[in-house]
Design brief:
The protein has 334 residues and is of the alpha/beta class. The protein is built from 14 helices and 9 strands. It is globular. It binds coproporphyrinogen III.
């Protein structure tokens, strides 16, 4: 059985597997080297030779328990024909969203645009060195994708003023997103992804009254879809105020927590396996502090099925040596 499945399915508490969000990325010099010669990020994700190589980079260096495929949640709007670019120091920049255009896209058009992501997953999952590792496929949650598609850039702390003006439009787009997320998930699984993580990076922007329509209902539909494929699903409803309510309604197989929540409260409230929590900024401090902070999570969750991870993606300025240290701390704990 793969390490994450032991925890998620068997509720094994005898060890804590570890992987980290954005483990394939800018803190690794070998990634920056490839990135330097590939200024177009989407093209890089669609270059299956390079994207499979980048996926493997952190596993060559470190004893992680899972590979997460090098791609992006914004491959979905890209596959729907919306322009997606990444600008240095600005982040994602999306083109105008045209409802008529995205309404006319069919599954074949979509898969044709993004199929190289699946080809990369196939390459990674057929690598015998990864036999005892999980291969994590992922998608953005419908709400977070809706935010990027309408807002056309990261919302930081607030959405465009007229974001909710056209309810009809929003609900149509949500349904299209949900439909193609299922296509995207199915193709990742068919090519060897054996866990799916759903990133809802902007769930914290919503008021409580809007959560059922924009977060709970569409995410539940995806969670049920992943379960129908017999694959575990991890949800990350970042900065949501009520993780318990989210878990009670959406019922993922495991939940990733952000670094602003109190892990003791999570332990009390949540029965399903937990992942993550450590503030990525801790990796910018020193060994002693890292050990203290990592041990806090390991102690709190010592009798609870727990996958070690961060409370958000690793920061580009992180020294890879600190990642090495973290893995050792986690592996030596039990
Ligand atoms: O290693 C991994 O975790 C797998 C690959 C992965 C990437 N993005 C690669 C990436 C994953 C799982 C994501 C998820 C993602 N992408 C999310 C959800 C998680 C989160 O961060 O909240 C979101 C919101 C995105 C959208 C996105 N992609 C943003 C906002 C940015 C720019 C911000 C930044 O960090 O500069 C990206 C670019 C991106 N995606 C990079 C990587 C490695 C940086 C690309 C680069 O400039 O080299």
């Amino acid at each position: 059985m793969k390490p994450l499945n032991k925890v998620i399915i068997n509720k094994d508490t005898s060890f804590n597997p570890i992987w980290i969000m954005r483990q394939a990325g800018r803190y690794l010099p070998e990634f920056r080297e490839i990135r330097k010669n590939n200024p177009n990020f989407i093209d890089l994700c669609l270059n299956d030779t390079l994207s499979s190589e980048i996926t493997l980079q952190p596993l060559k260096r470190f004893d992680f328990d899972a590979a997460i495929i090098f791609s992006d949640i914004l491959m979905l709007p890209y596959g729907l024909g919306q322009k997606v670019e990444f600008e240095k120091k600005f982040g994602p920049k999306l083109g105008e969203l045209n409802l008529n255009e995205i309404s006319n896209i069919d599954e074949i058009d979509f898969v044709e645009k993004v199929h190289r992501v699946y080809k990369a997953i196939k390459k990674v999952s057929s690598n015998p060195d990864l036999n005892d590792k999980n291969i994590i496929g992922f998608v953005g949650a419908p709400w977070t994708l809706l935010v990027y598609m309408i807002n056309q850039k990261s919302p930081k702390n607030n959405l465009k003023k007229d974001f909710f003006n056209d309810n009809f439009l929003i609900n149509r787009i949500l349904l299209i997103i949900e439909k193609f997320l299922k296509v995207h998930i199915k193709n990742q699984v068919d090519n060897g992804a054996n866990i799916i993580q759903i990133f809802d990076s902007w769930s914290g922007l919503l008021e409580e009254k809007d959560l059922p329509n924009y977060v709970y209902t569409p995410t539940l539909s995806l969670v049920n879809f992943v379960k129908s494929l017999n694959i575990p699903v991890i949800c990350f409803p970042r900065e949501i105020k009520n993780y318990k309510e989210f878990c009670d309604i959406v019922q993922p197989d495991a939940v990733n927590i952000d670094y602003n929540v109190d892990p003791k409260k999570i332990l009390k409230d949540i029965k399903i396996p937990v992942q993550g929590g450590l503030d990525p900024k801790i990796l910018l401090t020193d060994y002693e502090n890292l050990k203290k902070e990592a041990n806090k999570y390991l102690e709190i969750f010592k009798d609870h099925p727990y996958i070690f991870n961060l409370g958000h993606g690793i920061l580009p300025e992180t020294n890879p040596e600190m990642v090495e240290n973290l893995i050792k701390i986690v592996k030596d704990f039990k």
